[in-house]
Amino acid sequence: MPPLKIKKGSSKHSAYDLRDPNAEVLEAHTLAVVVDNEAGVLARVIGLFSGRGYNIESLTVAEIDHEGRRSRITIVTTGTPQVIEQIKAQLGRLVPVYSVADLTVEGPSVQRELALFKVAGQGDKRVEALRLADIFRASVVDSTLESFVFELTGTPEKIGAFADLMRPLGLIEVARTGIAALARGAQSETA
Fold first, then answer.
1. Which of 30, 42, 48, 148 could pair with 103 as two cysteines, CB 3.0-4.6 Å apart?
2. How confident is the model at residue 146 (pLDDT cuts 50, 70, 90)?
3. How far does Cα 44 stand from its chain's mean position?
């Protein structure tokens, strides 16, 4: 195999950049989908993803209109721009779907996640876990002589950073809700 030739001053041919320059970049998008609140609707939406090999990073579902029997599904998915457009179009064609909003491209949005962390430890590690929880504004929702359960709400990045810091202090279990998101401003994206 001949040696790799690198032209000086050229960033196009770096030996360290092995990405295909023609490959499309994967993007994460947060979709808000309003659907009928009835049996089987979630299965149909999820079936659309699994049947076509689309990945779901996060999924939350809750009723938003009891009288109108509607629920909101917030889905974080990853794909190329073309795949994201296909997902939105296919979701929009499902019968029980009232609206599909891509919160990632339709303007600023607020995204939050709730997580519970069980941390077991004694002595200095226990004190350090409490100190870090205070810095992150995590609440202690359960305490024993051997462990704490912390509750933390924030961005997925904040949740991940807290988990990374708790691992060496005795993190033994994590439960995350998935992302809940709303568009900023007075208008509704999913009316």
1. 30
2. very high
3. 21
Q: How many CB atoms lie within 10 A of CB 32?
A: 22
Separation between Cα atoms, residue 68 and residue 130, nearest integer Å: 44
For residues 34 and 88, membership in a common domain is answered with: yes
> 70-79 and 97-102: which strand pairing?
unpaired
Strands 70-79, 109-120: parallel, antiparallel or unpaired by DSSP? unpaired
Domain boundary among 102, 117, 147: 102
Residue 67 lies in a domain: yes
Domain hosting residue 91, numbered range: 27-102
Closest CA to 65 of 86, 46, 38: 38
pLDDT per position as a tens digit, 95-109 = 889 999 999 998 899
Chain length of the chain: 191
